[in-house]
Design goal:
The chain has helices spanning 4-15, 20-29; strands at 34-46, 53-68, 74-78, 88-100, 107-115, 120-128, 139-150. 14% of the residues lie in helices and 50% in strands. The protein is globular, with a radius of gyration of 18 Å. The longest helix is centred in the first third of the chain and has 12 residues, at 4-15.
Length: 154
């Protein structure tokens, strides 16, 4: 069982990583934790050619957590790794934001794609140092907002 001292050391390593490897190790020792909220919303779609706008009610999943990049400077994960699926099917728009944790500057880029026929979203976070070189062991917070609906089978 981890002591208060152990937890404090892990938290400090994640929040201010002077040695990226110790921060990544601390993240690896934390349980996977995410917060998610499901809410009602409105989706607005604008047809670019005719400039016609259509609005319709929608369901929104807002989910966030934290992770760290691997040795290749990337982290790949799926939303269903951080939630208890209840038959959701996701669709556009998908909005993902990732923010590095710590005092050392890094750039993060993000790719999000629908997978498994829309029943999941795969997110890839890429970390880069100031010279554009992939950066390993970068701890980061992430947040994703995505439309979903629940298919009801008869």
């Amino acid at each position: 069982m981890a002591t208060k001292s152990d937890k404090k050391k892990q938290t400090e390593a994640v929040s201010d990583s002077k040695a990226g490897e110790s921060a990544a190790a601390a993240v690896a020792n934390f349980p996977a934790v995410a917060l998610n909220t499901k809410m009602a919303g409105v989706t607005t779609k604008i047809h670019q050619l005719i400039k016609k706008k259509a609005c319709h009610d929608s369901h929104i999943l807002d989910i966030n957590g934290f992770a760290a990049t691997a040795a290749n400077g990337q982290k790949v994960f799926r939303l269903t790794d951080f939630m208890c699926p209840q038959g959701e099917e996701f669709n556009s728009p998908i909005n993902v934001v990732a923010t590095p944790i710590g005092s050392k500057p890094f750039f993060l880029t993000v790719k999000a794609v629908l997978v498994n026929l829309g029943t999941d979203v795969e997110i890839t976070v890429f970390a880069w140092d100031a010279n554009g070189v992939p950066a390993p062991n970068v701890s980061f917070n992430w947040r994703c907002r995505v439309n979903y609906f629940v298919r009801i089978f008869a």
